UniProtKB/TrEMBL annotation:
Stored InterPro entries: P-loop_NTPase, SecYEG/CpoB_TPR, TPR-like_helical_dom_sf, TPR_rpt
Chain ranges of the Ancillary SecYEG translocon subunit/Cell division coordinator CpoB TPR domain: 526-605
Entry keywords, A to Z: TPR repeat
SUPFAM superfamilies, sorted: P-loop containing nucleoside triphosphate hydrolases, TPR-like
Protein name: Ancillary SecYEG translocon subunit/Cell division coordinator CpoB TPR domain-containing protein
TPR repeat ranges per the UniProt record: 564-597
Superkingdom of this protein's organism: Bacteria
Length: 883
């Protein structure tokens, strides 16, 4: 399906040499779509300047550059030269549209080196695909879906001067403030006025149930806000990690960003009661997050709601307006005198400022307070008054109001007729949003929308879906498509853009939206796509069981790559929980489909990508990148094979080669994988270099919030520290990792850390603790760990001088190790048997055990272990000899 921006891009290309014309193209030339780029030449760019901005961003999009920012240096001529010297698609667009002279077709064909038939076929078939890809890149550059809030500041607040002065002083002095008050008392208006007078950057977020009431939905908005003010740490990490960050890591990045701001930022949270009424786990996480924000220096926090947010934040109550303030408001709006008892009128509106605002709109037309009060007495509430306001509008303004009622988010002003907007603004029915956007007054929208029937709403949803899609707001477009019953279109719009929508802060909306689509009303392919999307989102928040259930509910038919991806996703879900055996089974299914193993799968994908870059796009740099990643995978695989074979020198060579490739690629994720592998091999050889390799991997995974990978490397580090006789350090790290894996019920890694703890306590002669942890190892029944658990029981019995029991345990451990071909474990057990037999003066048995251990260590190339055995045999009074 053609991208909805494809026709607009074609218009831009046809008029590329006319910047003044480009600056009038709607909606591309609007502040809402151009975002931060709109200010490239100042706050109020001319049409020609807007056209120059469009030239820049479209040229970048055609080049495939998506990480450019407005504050960087830009040279349009240089970008065009890159397109001219680029791949086949880029050269096609350059010579057809962007060259300074419009060339005849036969000259174009010669410049491109194509046959005439090929050229025309490319213009027909390839150009739409090129523009589709460019449209996606353009939206990644502009990020129109990432909209920050701007609270509507009232033109005048009556009776609040003293309260505002007190609130401002408290906010400056205490650094944090919680405003509480009843519904309709004017909390948001007062807070918006405070924010408007703040001498520094202001971030505003209105909590909406199930839409943005998760930490994952807040972080992209905070990142965009800080980036707009020149602080990039949070935004960059979110971009790297696809919108997913550990909240503690995010808080650290926010702290660093705020420290770089010239003036303290004010963070405002409206409708905070959303997370306090019936708190869910994600509400508790969000509550903790905002409390932690309040501890950041160079940041002030303003919380608005109808109940106390936290006992440790100062609170200021907002009481209903006094009679004199309402009267001042009335007198400022109209010159007429009230024709209805004033105190009775105040009783009717009950201090509700929203109701007072509606009355002040109506008074302009009715000219009689008594008539309005009669309506209120007959029909208490706002509905009847809103209906009366609508009848005051002209037909075209009424039609526009109906259309705007379908939008829950601010939309560009330039999309609507200015005359109709003027009448709505005359009656104060609109409020301004961020970057020249607008929306209906929320109270009016809510009540008017409720009066529309399902049949009346459907075409409005269809229209709103098209508008949001045109603006690159895919989640919002999909929401309206679902409401209109067009589920397939919703999936077509949303699924390809789902990762960028997460980065735009629509995580909560996406979760709720997908739950509204009935699987049984979708064709098989769309149902499968929906299940994948739901599983990815569930994985994002750690709902692994829910994610797997969603995948299991759809048929695994379709292309090999799709079926393999579903099994890979299942494996990722198991792996995230530490369920290694189940993960491997899922990966094996994917491998079977692709007829290769996991490393080969990665390598083949990189090879295919490299060949596509080379053969189809002539993009040599991208092809080299793919080739380098293929070499990385190959080196990693060769290292792993040598590691499993016990050839540790060769394994080191393979892993070091992989690290060299990762460093050449400047890819931190690949570097972390290589460091973790190098650490394992150095640990086997008891080389202290392992510690630094482990720590590099741990720091990287912690920095991106990948707590599972970090804890795994901590587990391996703890095991190594135990092996080099640092039991206290091993216990400290293993306990931390053990606690983490307990929380996510990862049996394999719980068992591994239990092994480490058992071994460390043995080294400290703490037999009871060692025995308890050894039995826990056996409880988890991990095949690779059972020999070690039995070995620890043998060591404990040996320490207690229960030699018969110890011998039985150790021989059992040897047999279990042989069954799984773990030569390293076999050697360790034979060494312990040597000590047992020597202590009981069974010297021939001790010699046999010593020979078994030394032979195995020699096969494995573990020279330090051989030296340790030789040293021990040397002090055996000649009873034992190492060959």
């Amino acid at each position: 399906m053609t991208h909805i921006l494809n026709p607009i891009l074609r218009t831009v290309l046809n008029q590329f040499d006319q910047p003044a014309e480009l600056g009038t193209i709607q909606p591309l030339a609007t502040p809402a779509l151009l975002g931060h780029w709109y200010d490239l030449y100042g706050a109020y760019p001319s049409e020609r300047q807007r056209g120059h901005i469009i030239q820049l961003v479209v040229a970048y999009a055609l080049l495939g550059e998506t990480q450019v920012r407005p504050e960087q240096t830009h040279d349009l001529a240089e970008i065009l030269q890159q397109l001219r010297a680029g791949n086949r698609d880029q050269r096609l667009v350059y010579w057809r549209f962007l060259h300074e002279h419009k060339l005849p077709v036969h000259v174009l064909i010669d410049e491109l080196g194509l046959a005439k038939a090929t050229f025309h076929r490319d213009m027909k078939d390839r150009l739409p695909l090129i523009l589709d890809q460019a449209a996606d890149c353009l939206l990644s550059i502009l990020q129109p879906a990432l909209q920050l809030e701007r609270p509507p500041v009232p033109a005048q607040l009556y009776g609040r001067a003293e309260w505002l002065a007190e609130a401002y002083a408290m906010l400056k002095h205490e650094q944090h403030l919680c405003i509480i008050g009843s519904t309709g008392v004017g909390k948001s208006a007062c807070a918006a006025t405070l924010a408007n007078t703040w001498q520094g950057p202001v971030f505003w977020l209105t909590l909406l149930p199930d839409l943005n009431d998760q930490v994952e939905s807040c972080l992209p908005l905070i990142g965009a806000f800080l980036q707009h003010h020149g602080a990039y740490n949070l935004a960059q990490h979110l971009a790297i990690e696809g919108g997913k960050l550990n909240s503690n890591v995010a808080l650290g990045l926010i702290r660093r960003d705020c420290a770089s701001l010239t003036n303290p930022a004010l963070f405002c949270l409206d409708q905070s009661e959303v997370m306090l009424k019936q708190p869910q786990p994600h509400h508790r996480a969000l509550h903790s997050f905002w409390r932690a924000l309040a501890a950041i220096s160079n940041m002030h926090v303003l919380i608005i709601g109808n109940r106390v947010f936290s006992d440790d934040l100062p609170v200021l109550s907002l009481e209903p307006l006094e009679s004199s303030a309402f009267r001042a408001w009335f007198d400022a709006t109209t010159t007429m005198q009230p024709d209805y008892p004033w105190e009775q009128f105040l009783a009717l509106i009950a201090g509700n400022t929203h109701l007072m605002r509606i009355v002040m709109v109506l008074i302009q037309q009715e000219r009689s307070l008594a008539a309005i009060c009669a309506m209120l007495e007959a029909h208490p509430g706002v509905s009847s008054l809103i209906e009366r306001i609508i009848t005051m509008l002209g037909p075209s303004a009424q039609q526009l109001l109906t259309i705007l009622a379908s939008f829950q988010q601010p939309i560009p002003r330039s999309l609507w007729p200015s005359n109709d907007l003027q009448q709505l603004e005359q009656y104060q029915l609109l409020q301004a949003g961020y970057r020249d956007t607008l929306e209906l007054w929320p109270l009016l929208r809510k009540h008017y929308w409720q009066q529309l029937s399902t049949e009346q709403r459907q075409p409005l949803h269809e229209h709103a879906a098209q508008v949001h899609a045109l603006l690159g707001q895919w989640t919002l477009a999909a929401e309206h498509a679902i409401a209109a019953g067009d589920y397939a279109q919703a999936i077509v719009w949303w699924f390809p853009q789902r990762h960028s929508e997460i980065r735009a802060g629509y995580f909560g909306r996406m979760l709720r939206m997908l739950q509204l689509i009935p699987l049984d009303q979708l064709p098989a392919r769309e149902a499968q796509t929906l299940a994948i999307g739901q599983a990815e989102l569930a994985r994002f928040i750690g709902s692994y069981d829910q994610a797997r259930a969603g995948l299991a509910a759809v048929s695994h038919t379709g292309s090999d790559s799709l079926r393999a991806y579903i099994h890979q996703l299942e494996g990722d879900l198991w792996e995230a929980q530490g369920q290694i055996e189940q993960a491997m089974q899922s990966y094996e299914r994917a491998i079977t489909i692709l007829d290769t193993n996991h490393y080969h799968q990665e390598a083949i994908l990189y090879v295919k990508r490299g060949l596509m870059h080379l053969n189809h796009e002539r993009d040599f740099e991208a092809a080299h990148q793919a080739a380098a990643k293929t070499h990385f995978i190959a080196a990693l695989l060769s290292g792993e094979i040598a590691d499993e074979e016990g050839n540790y020198d060769l394994a080191l060579q393979g892993y070091q080669t992989a690290l060299d490739h990762a460093c050449a690629l400047n890819d931190q994720a690949l570097q972390a994988r290589a460091h973790a592998s190098l650490a394992i091999v150095h640990a086997r050889n008891e080389r202290t270099e392992a510690i630094e390799h482990f720590n590099v991997a741990i720091r990287y995974y912690q920095s991106i919030g990948n707590n599972v990978r970090a804890a795994r490397n901590q587990s391996n580090l703890a095991y190594f520290l135990g092996e080099i006789n640092q039991p206290h350090e091993a216990i400290t790290i293993a306990k931390e990792a053990y606690s983490f894996f307990k929380q996510i019920n990862s049996r394999f890694w719980i068992s591994l850390n239990t092994m480490t703890l058992a071994n460390a306590h043995v080294e400290l002669n703490q037999c009871d603790d060692a025995e308890r942890y050894a039995h826990e190892v056996l409880h988890y029944e991990e095949t690779a760990h059972v020999p070690f658990g039995v070995y620890i029981l043998g060591r404990v019995a040996n320490l207690k001088q229960e030699f018969t029991i110890a011998e039985r345990y150790l021989h059992q451990s040897v047999q279990l190790s042989q069954a799984i071909q773990d030569r390293f474990m076999q050697a360790k057990v034979w060494r312990e048997l040597t000590k047992l037999f020597y202590a009981t003066q069974r010297y021939p048995d001790a010699q046999h055990a010593l020979s078994q251990a030394s032979d195995l260590y020699q096969q494995l190339g573990l020279n330090k272990e051989l030296e340790r055995i030789q040293h021990w045999a040397h002090h055996s009074n000649g009873q034992l000899v190492v060959n």
